[in-house]
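User: Some background: our group keeps a shared notebook of sequences we're curious about, and every so often someone picks one and asks for a predicted structure to add to the entry. Today it's my turn. The entry only has the sequence so far, pasted here. Could you supply the structure so I can complete it?
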Amino acid sequence: MFIAYFTTVAYTDVLEDDATVLQRFKRESQDDPKAYLDQVINYWIFRIPTLIDISVAQSEKDITLTVAKRVTQGWSIVIASWKDILSDYVENDRTLGNIGDMTVVYNYGFLFTYGIGFGFPLLLGLPDDKKSCGRDNFVNTLAQYDLQGGVSPLLHRYASPVNIQSILVEFELVIGTKLSCIDSAENIESQAVTIAVSNLIAAMAARVEIASQYGRSSYHVERKLDVNEEETSSTLVAEETPPILLAEPSSLLAGKAAQIVSSPI
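Assistant: Of course. Here's the predicted structure to add to the notebook entry:
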């Protein structure tokens, strides 16, 4: 009871620390959502490996206690049943030639199979007391998708945020497989890892979405400016063009040519 209470208090402190840091980021970047999300992303990238270490250590400790409990219970049942057989055998001075009637044989058989039937299942299929994943799986997967610095470096490298969104979708699937040994149902430390990874992916997706919206907005503004410049340029050219440079009807041009030819020199 005390251990469970202590663990709950420790986890609550972790949540409060994370919430305090994120609130500070939000206050510092009220007018710049991109800067806020970059801070959140970098924080979780730095924080999650530590949470994984805590989760793995606690889970391995829980598994060790579970294995010890099952082994103790299993062998207690088996030995107790065999002890009942031995005590009856010794108390009644039984021998192999004088073991008693069939009732005694049936009783011994029942006790023996009872111990095996209820004791051995606790001894078989014991879980491994070592987790098959850890912080390296998270760090290496980030590096595999060039996300160790968040999504900001990718935004400067790729032409379209759609490419980065595809990377995030694949990363979410792969990281779930890489950290499959961490089960949020095992303990609250493992639940903290699952929540932190989900928050990281959500922050990355939001950062890419903001960049995508900013890119579309910039394109529309630039396009509108280009259209306005073209319209203004056309208007100025029309106003500044001298009348003699404007196109004249072919009949007028022919009349002027005839006048020039017939005029005396």
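Suggested note for the entry: Residues 1-13, 217-228, 241-265 have pLDDT under 50 and may be disordered. Residues 2-219 form one domain.
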